[in-house]
TrEMBL record:
Organism in which the protein naturally occurs: Poseidonocella sedimentorum
Lineage of the species this protein comes from: Bacteria, Pseudomonadati, Pseudomonadota, Alphaproteobacteria, Rhodobacterales
Membrane spanning stretches: 12-29, 41-63, 69-90, 102-124, 136-154, 166-185
Localization per Swiss-Prot or TrEMBL: Cell inner membrane
Keywords assigned by UniProt, alphabetized: Cell inner membrane, Cell membrane, Membrane, Transmembrane, Transmembrane helix
GO cellular-component term (any): plasma membrane
Annotated protein name in UniProt: Inner membrane-spanning protein YciB
Main location group: membrane
C-alpha cells in the first residue's frame, strides 16, 4: 500500500498516540505505588510497562497500513523494548530515562560514519522529502549529527540532575520542540541548496 493513501490523521495518531498516552498515564499514576507479585512499583515503572506493548502495536499498525517503516522507527522500538524492559525488570527508572541518550547517540553515530565515508546517509532516507544538492545534504548531515549528539548530552544532564516530572516534560515536549526548531532553523540552507529551482544549489 502506498504511504500517501493512508489517512494523515490516522498516521499521526499512530505515531504520536503512544507518547501522548504515556504522558497522560504518567500524570495520572505518577504518585501511585503498585504492589505486584509482592514487589512495589512506582507509577512511572507501571506506565513504562504499558508503553512498551503500546508502541510495538502502533508501529505494527503503521507497517500494516504503509507497508514500510523507517530505520529510525525500528531503532526506536528496539531501544524502547531493551531499555524500557530493563527498567521494568529491574524496577529502576534510570534505564528508560537513558533511552533517548542511546537513540540520539545511535543516530549521531550512524550519520557520523557516513560523513567519514564521504556520504550523507540522511539523504538516503529523506531525499524524497527534501530535494537538495549533494553539498546541501552534507552540510545538513553534519549539523544534524552534531544536533543529535547535543540532544544525547542534554538528556543525560536532565535526567541525572532534575526530577522525573521534569524529565517527562522534557521528553514529551522539549525534544519534539527542539527537532522542529532545528529544521525551521535550516530554512536558509533549504533555500540555498534546493534542487526544485532547477539549479544545482551552488552560487
Amino acid at each position: 500500500m502506498d504511504d500517501k493513501s493512508v489517512n494523515p490523521v490516522v498516521k499521526s495518531a499512530l505515531e504520536l498516540g503512544p507518547i501522548v498516552i504515556f504522558f497522560a498515564a504518567y500524570l495520572w499514576l505518577k504518585d501511585t505505588i503498585f504492589t505486584i507479585g509482592g514487589r512495589e512499583y512506582e507509577g512511572f515503572i507501571v506506565v513504562t510497562a504499558g508503553f512498551i506493548p503500546l508502541l510495538i502495536l502502533s508501529t505494527l499498525a503503521l507497517w500494516k497500513l504503509t507497508g514500510k517503516l523507517s530505520r529510525m522507527q525500528l531503532a526506536t522500538v528496539v531501544l524502547v523494548v531493551i531499555f524500557g524492559g530493563l527498567s521494568v525488570w529491574l524496577n529502576d527508572d534510570r534505564f528508560f530515562k537513558m533511552k533517548p541518550t542511546m537513540i540520539y547517540l545511535l543516530f549521531a553515530g550512524v550519520l557520523g560514519v557516513g560523513l567519514l565515508r564521504g556520504q550523507s546517509y540522511l539523504r538516503l532516507v529523506m531525499e524524497e522529502l527534501m530535494p537538495l544538492a549533494p553539498e546541501g545534504w552534507m552540510i545538513l548531515t553534519r549539523r544534524l549529527a552534531a544536533f543529535f549528539a547535543g540532544l544525547a548530552l542534554l538528556n543525560e544532564v536532565i535526567w541525572r540532575t532534575m526530577s522525573t516530572d521534569s524529565w517527562v516534560y522534557f521528553k514529551t515536549f522539549g525534544l519534539t520542540a527542539a527537532l522542529f526548531a532545528f529544521f525551521i532553523a535550516q530554512n536558509k540552507l533549504f533555500e540555498t541548496y534546493s534542487t526544485e529551482r532547477g539549479d544545482d544549489g551552488e552560487g
